[in-house]
Amino acid sequence: MTTAPPDTEVGPLLREWRERRRISQLELALRADSSARHISFVETGRSRPSEDMVLRLAEALDVPVRERNALLVMAGYAPRYAQTPLDAPAMSALRESLDRLLTAYEPYPALVVDGVYGVVAANRGIALLLEGVAERLLVPPVNAMRLTLHPEGLAPRIVNLPEWRADLLAQMERQIALVRSPALRELYEEVAAYPVPERPADTDRTDVPEGPGGAGGSASADGRTGGERAAAFALPMRLEHGGRVLSFVSSIATFNTPMDVTVAELAIETFLPADRETAAYLHAHLPP
After folding, report:
1. CATH classification of 89-285, choosing from 3.10.450, 2.60.40, 1.20.58, 3.30.450?
2. Among 184, 216, 230, 240, which one has the highest count of C-beta atoms within 10 angstroms of its own C-beta?
């Protein structure tokens, strides 16, 4: 492998990462088994860090894998981490594992997104919730943020849209603060500018049908379902579907210690029913 010539910008960039993490040069030195003096020299460009030192500092600062490659190149070294397309033969085992995971989670919704929220896989639980979404938003490449917040997407049917929208935008802001991604910044500016659809007053409360075992009740915009408060432990997404309100809480999982940029940026988002009525509805209505 050939290496790029050293770039004096690696020092300031490492300092920027350290300041983002809000740690001192001494603390970083302790984490990276170095000295505060050497860290200072690296940050000011007086000392060129070795390849091993760049990687140790990046690890100590929890720098994303893509950005670790950028640090190496700036320091005059070859990138360490590959970026293998997800459809490459080498990724077949990963794709099969993701498909099995998504299928096993049915009838509950689950999907896999990349670093800019592009949907790379989804299960039938997700498909169930997409009724009424504009066809143009479902043409690949599908974007989860655009699909959720666009006025022709899920947004008009999200009962608590202001709260859910604010949470999603805050999530994107945190990610933008961690990675230098023009594409992610562009997506954020696009979806943040979408108008917020107004909901008619008569959709504030809808009935949830009986499911298997006779589960039934009602759902309302204040989070009560079947006489109990749903998802008091987390902000739910309350979504109108077929004249009913379904309630979900979401969780996001990423890969531990990834060695590939593509894998490092994948996230698996699962939607857990926040009440028994939603669970029963999903079991009764999963598409074939």
Report:
1. 3.30.450
2. 230
